[in-house]
Write a structure and sequence with these properties.
Elements: E1 2-8, E2 10-11, E3 23-24, H1 27-42, E4 49-57, H2 65-78, E5 80-91, H3 98-107, E6 111-117, H4 121-127, H5 133-146, E7 151-157, H6 164-176, E8 181-186, H7 194-205, H8 224-240, E9 244-247, E10 250-252, H9 259-265, E11 270-273, E12 278-281, E13 284-288, H10 292-300, E14 306-311, H11 314-325, E15 332-333, H12 334-341, H13 345-358, E16 362-365, E17 368-371, H14 373-377, H15 379-383
Parallel strand pairs: 1-4, 1-11, 2-3, 4-5, 5-6, 6-7, 7-8
Antiparallel strand pairs: 8-10, 9-10, 12-13, 13-14, 15-17, 16-17
Helix pairs in contact: 1-2, 1-10, 2-3, 3-5, 6-8
Length: 387
């Protein structure tokens, strides 16, 4: 079935590390944007059954609950949305009041994904987040009290000033909140990220890195091997808490893997609506115009919002299925892959993968192959054999 992605580009503050398509909140523009988003969904030239709806951003929880309800209704009108469909709302803790959570549940949202990032207030401040650790815990508790039974939140590691010990404290705080799903993201800084520039200025103004305890240390990232320890130790701890790893950056209780995101990793079809949203359906990929105002204007004029449309070649689809499928801990089923693409993946690529197998980075058994945890640490290097 299709997955439906709805992009909400508004934020109360812009985090210094973020490279998503987003902008500061504008109330009048938001109203026009919801109108445009509803119209784009209604005018979709793709139809059929869908079993996931994902509100991403930006900060989708800045929508008023009636707007969320309106957009869900638009999806139901345009598509055959399955009973029990997974409907996710990305939510920042500072926007999650009990009243709003109650109303979103009533509107049809059944999965909340909180942008927590850290349970350390100093780390949150350096990231430019505007919530505190206490507020995040309160919001998660409020969501449970409202009746949400599928809660996820994001955590980030390798933050400036973060130690292995402080990261492990954040993981322990997460375990204590009993989430159904967790995403663990390594901080990556795009070239012109404000946070990257702040870190560089702090490092230049401080004592040499060999002298510890300076103000510049608060803006330095730990060594690469410490980042690896952060990743591996978190997965081990979360596993003991009943959260099974199912993808490089994601763990979940049994039955709570993100059904929407799994579509991406299993090369499924999805439709993206809103400014900057990407879609892949029937072997064709496209994205929407990135500018919020341009998007709204185009929809109002009934002009196309699509740009960069591309029909994927059989080879591109094959390579992408390997790239994304190997992010999953279950790996690639060789028989299913042969049926889908007419190619035996191990016959074609096994020779190139032999060295990673011998190095303990790739496993192969019972007609499947995949990345080991050490292999996940260097996934891009291993997966380069498919290009």
């Amino acid at each position: 079935m299709l997955g439906l992605y709805l992009h909400i580009p508004f934020c109360q503050a812009i985090c210094g590390y973020c490279n998503f398509n987003r902008g500061l909140f504008d109330g009048p523009l938001k109203i026009r944007y919801v109108d445009a988003l509803s119209a784009e969904i209604a005018a979709s030239d793709h139809h059929g059954a869908a079993d996931t709806i994902f509100f991403g951003g930006g900060t989708p929880s800045l929508l008023d609950p009636p707007e969320v309800a309106r957009l869900i209704a638009a999806c139901r009108d345009a598509f055959d949305v399955a009973p029990g469909a997974e409907i996710t709302l990305e939510t920042n803790p500072e926007t999650a009041t009990p009243e709003r959570l109650d109303a979103c549940l009533e509107a049809g949202v059944n999965r909340i994904s909180f942008g927590v990032q850290s349970f350390d207030d100093d780390e949150l401040a350096r990231l430019g987040r505007i919530h505190s650790a206490a507020r995040a815990k309160e919001a998660i508790g409020d969501a449970r009290a409202s009746g949400f039974t599928n809660l996820s939140f994001d955590l980030m590691f390798w933050l400036p000033g973060q130690s292995l010990a402080s990261w492990q404290r954040t993981v322990e705080e997460a375990v204590a909140l009993a989430p159904d799903h967790l995403s663990l993201y390594l901080l990556e800084l795009y070239p012109n990220a404000p946070l990257k520039e702040t870190m560089a200025r702090a490092a230049a103004a401080s004592a040499p890195a060999s002298v510890r305890g300076t103000a510049g240390d608060l803006w330095r990232q730990a060594a690469d091997d410490v980042a690896a320890d952060m990743y591996l130790s978190a997965l081990e701890r979360l596993e003991t808490a009943g959260l099974r790893q199912y993808e490089i950056s994601n763990v979940a209780r049994p039955g709570f893997a993100s059904r929407h995101n799994v579509k991406y990793w299993q090369s499924g079809d999805w439709l993206g609506f809103g400014c900057g949203a990407h879609s892949t359906c029937d072997g064709v990929r496209w994205k929407n115009v990135a500018s919020t105002s341009d998007y709204v204007d185009r929809v109002a004029r009934r002009a196309t919002v699509r740009v960069d449309e591309e029909r994927l070649s059989p080879q591109s689809r094959l390579e992408e299925a390997l790239f994304t499928g190997l992010r999953l801990t279950e790996g690639i089923d060789e028989g299913n892959f042969r049926e889908r693409f007419g190619v035996d993946p191990w016959t074609r690529y096994g020779g190139d993968l032999q060295a990673p197998v011998e190095a303990g980075l790739v496993w192969r058994r019972s007609g499947r192959f995949g990345l080991t945890r050490p292999g996940m640490l260097v996934a891009n290097d291993v997966l380069s054999v498919f290009v």
